[in-house]
Amino acid sequence: MAKTRFIELFSAISVLATSAACNSLTKLDDYTIAPGATGTDTESVCVSNAKCTDDATLAHGSGDKVPAVCVKQTGHCVELLSEDCDTITGDYASDDAVVIGSLFSTKGAQAATNIQRQQSAELAVGQINDVGGLPLNGATPQKLVLLSCDESTDLTRAGNHLVGELKVPAIVGPNTSQDTLDLSTAVSVPGGTVVMSPTAVASSVGSLIDEDLTWLMVPTDVQRAPLMISQINALEKELTAARATTTVKLGVVFRDDALGIGTRTSLNGLVLNGKPISDAVNLGNRVHINAYDFSAADQNAIVDEYLAFLPDIIVLAGTAEAITRVMVPLESGWPASTPRPQYVLIDSVKVPELITAVTDNDELRARVRGTGITPAPASKAVYDAFKVDYQVAYPGSSIISGMGPAYDATYAIAMAMVAEGDPQPSGESVKAGLRRLQGGDMQIDIGATRVLAAFQHLATGDSIEARGTFSNLAWTKDGTVQGGTLEVWCIGAATGKPAYQSSGLSFDVMTGASQGQYTACQ
Fold first, then answer.
1. Residues facing 195 on adjacent strands
2. What would the DSSP string read from start to end of 337-364?
3. pLDDT by residue (tens digit) across 214-273?
4. How far is CA 513 from CA 142, 216, 227, in A?
5. Which residues share a beta bridge with 148?
6. How far is residue 318's CA from residue 219's CA, in Å, rounded to a whole number?
7. What CA–CA distance (Å, rounded) separates 275 from 284?
8. Residue 160 is inside which H or E element, if any?
9. 192 burial class (0-12, 13-18, 19+ CB within 10 angstroms)?
10. How far apart are CA 366 and CA 388, in angstroms?
């Protein structure tokens, strides 16, 4: 220890003696500004976040404070806010602050679901800082800072700001499978940053050559497939009996990206009308499968095809646009003389737009069901506590899918950093620390109440068994979740206002066992 302190002191004295500004050292009193240090490309050779902020503010000349930090890996000042990143949570002025990022589509069509996910990550950061911050191998805990960014305009640009310029060790997000793949391939894996998506489900994410840097927080499309297939077959049995027929027609409409493609391919094992869906009896005849461009202004070609095809069951695998551009116009144009279709959906269309579509339309509401995650029995108390904390922090906000996993991912990153104890955390230390959140003797519930106990245990070098809002935080070697519980959800209106509810049927991913039975929401 004495030798280490001598080296540190000698290095600091050497830097001061040559009047050079810092490279990796921090907390010196003076620093210099490189020529041309203006705007967002400020090239200040830095030593303190406060000084970086002062100089960035001066360079902009508007009088408004411009938050900036000293990035220790480069020795340069970097402004926190950018075209895509507009919200800071935590004390960025602290020189020991650890900056991480969140990356969600918080503008445009998907904002209604992703703002709450961002807020869930912000809630976790606030709770961690309220107990002092991150005890990273030092006497004084370090503050955690979250820079929240929008990915909807330019994913690569937002990612490069977080990874390339700010060198963040970890990111919570993105929200879609395709964006998770694209960010990982182009930005986060080459930059050595851990990405934890709370809502991506494509099994292809687990197949990335990613140096263990890309992680999922919820079961994949492959893990979900048995429950969805069982629901399609249950509807097949119900409809053939009710309509005195021997066959049904199925339509599968999927978003042409990793999310939709993963769901579509997970249904390849479906047997319908007594034959595999690939059989000529089905494919192209009784089964239509259609990809759609999610950026298109409408899906009129698919709608017209399905108004001619008139399927009995429709699977929608997309996000909000699957409701507004497929379901809504289909329902509007459906002939009155033909029985209307039953819909089987995925979690990512469990959105406000669907609630709007079924409002004052109980007949449609009764024809909608979907599959998605639900808290495992052991996690229910954790999820309930999170919901209370969120409602207190953001009064009047609704609880939607993906919020609990975003909260869990933020806590997981923080605990992983504490487990490794690196005062300048990197993607390498975060990914190593994540493996310490499973297999331990001590069970720790995610949240403000037990976070200090988790930090204390992890700081000693031990592992824990972390229990999140939906399941234990345990991953396979490829970064996909080991277990979890799925449910079949429906839309009830017992109070007169439509709301998502459980049907009572659940599925354990680890054991493959179903529990309960489907009961239509009232």
1. 171, 214
2. TSPPPEEEE-GGG-SHHHHHHHTT-HHH
3. 999 999 999 999 999 999 999 999 999 999 999 999 999 999 999 999 999 999 999 999
4. 44, 22, 10
5. 87, 102
6. 16
7. 13
8. helix 155-160
9. middle
10. 30
Q: Which residues contact 171 (CB under 8 A, 6 or more apart)?
A: 100, 101, 102, 103, 159, 162, 163, 183, 188, 193, 194, 195, 196
Can you tell me whether residue 75 is helix, strand or coil?
Answer: coil
**What mean pLDDT comes out for the span 412-433?**
97
Residue with tokens 């919820």: 218
pTM above 0.85, yes or no: yes
The distance of Cα 42 from the centroid of its chain, to the nearest Å, equals: 31
Q: Report phi then psi at 365, rounded to 5.
A: -55, -40
Q: Tell me the pLDDT tens digit for each residue of 103-118.
A: 999 998 788 889 999 9
As a whole number of angstroms, the distance between CA 279 and CA 503 comes to 32
Residues 6+ positions from 515 with CB-CB distance below 8 Å: 505, 506, 507, 508
The H or E element that residue 88 is part of is strand 85-89
CB 312 within 8 A of CB 341: yes
Please name the residue that has the structure tokens 């918080």.
106
User: What are the tokens at 194?
Assistant: 């851990």
Contact between 226 and 512 (Cβ < 8 Å): yes
Q: Kind of pairing, strands 275-276 and 271-272? A: antiparallel
Give one DSSP letter per residue of 2-65, joined into a string.
Answer: HHHHHHHHHHHHHHHHTTPPPSS----S--B--TT--GGG---B-S-HHHHHHHHHHHH-SSS-
Alpha helices in 324-434 (DSSP H): 328-333, 352-358, 362-365, 380-393, 403-420, 427-434
